[in-house]
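Researcher: Next entry in the queue.
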Amino acid sequence: MEYTLSMVFITENGLKSSLSVSGVKANITQAEVDTLMDTIIAKNIFLPDSGALEKKESAQLVARTVTKYEVTKA
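Model: Structure for this entry, 74 residues:
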């Protein structure tokens, strides 16, 4: 199963901006998510068109299962 952390921030212009990180461990904690989001805001390395990221809005861990099938080629 593949896990992606989807985070939403509020920018300096009051708009929402989202950022997703794939390959996240399944047992990531609330504290780790808070620390990550605080670091992203503090380092100010992402600059969306709507302005700098200023506040945390929300975060969610998304699990995705992919099943691949081998098909017979004609």
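Model: The CA atoms of residues 2 and 64 lie 5 Å apart.
Researcher: Noted, moving on.
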